[in-house]
Amino acid sequence: MSALNTVPFEKFHGTGNDFVVVDAEDPVPDRPEFARTHCDRDAGISLTESDRRGADGVLFLALEDRYDPPRVVMTLVQPDGSVAAMCGNGARVAAAWAAERAETTEVMIDTPAGTRRATVEDDYVSVEMGVPSFAPRDVPLDSGEELVEAEVGDLTVTAVNTGVPHAVAIVDDVDGVDLESVAPSIRHAPLFPEGANVTIASPDGNGGFRQRTFERGVEGETQSCGTGAVAVVAVAKRLGLVEGDDPVSVSPPGGELSVTVPDEGTALLGGPAVHEGDGEADVVFRQR
To answer: Is 121 annotated as a binding residue?
Structure first.
């Protein structure tokens, strides 16, 4: 593998869910290989400001500021080279990046899962997440029936799509689950023809939830997952653990998120989006 040239990048994180951000105008001919190389946790991108190498994905962002409000086209390439249809924390990072350049507090984000509206106040970003769906064809499921509190692998899960598919298990204590051990069999279960993120949650005693997620495409646990946080609240409402339209606190290992899943209308995800630093990254290609 050789370096052809370099492109500037910025590094952001949303409650520990970290991303390399590249302006889509900068040419990266092989985006999957770029992501596989620079997201690697052992040998990937590093900043002097942080001792954590690699990232949970690369956000290629294209700002279209001729619109009102400005639009940003978001493409998230994951560490395995695949493209994610939606990422809640990635969308919040994209909004923060675009809002700074367009000098605005409101941004429209174009994703493969649809267009989402975001508002930015300092480093706090709220983004529309669409309407969670339990429908088998939306998740999708290899079944004609919704999957609600069913045994899959070692967990009792409910399947929901919050932009990407999630298998959510409400457990007594998230710290008592060996997620890296139990998640892969669920993530790859034949019931999920496109795979699924595996999210576990437990009540925090204050009306909110603690959350951990094993992410499809990362193939491991991340410090935070925005679509997973929304999935937790959507499933909790479905199971009668949460009522009403008030925001619910969801705390992954990387921080705290605010999630609203109304009885009607789009879900909302709010939390910090933090700029970590800038650098130059090799544009890589494979020698053949």
So the answer is: no
The verdict on whether residue 227 carries a ligand-binding annotation is yes
**CATH code for the domain defined by 132-262:** 3.10.310.10
Angle, CA 244 vertex, CA 238 and CA 246 arms, to 5°: 115
pTM of the full structure: 0.93
How far is residue 233's CA from residue 209's CA, in Å, rounded to a whole number? 8
Domain ranges of the chain: 2-129+273-285, 132-262
Superfamily of chain region 2-129+273-285? Diaminopimelate Epimerase; Chain A, domain 1 (3.10.310.10)
Q: Which residues are catalytic?
A: 87, 225
pLDDT digits (tens, 9 = 90+) for 113-141: 999 999 999 999 999 999 999 999 999 99
Q: What is the pLDDT of residues 230-282, one digit of tens each?
A: 999 999 999 999 999 999 999 999 999 999 999 999 999 999 999 999 999 99
Question: Is residue 5 a known part of a binding site?
Answer: no
Whether 78 has a binding-site annotation, put simply, is: yes
Q: How many whole angstroms separate alpha carbon 8 and alpha carbon 131?
A: 35
- The answer to whether the CB of 178 falls within 8 A of the CB of 198 is no
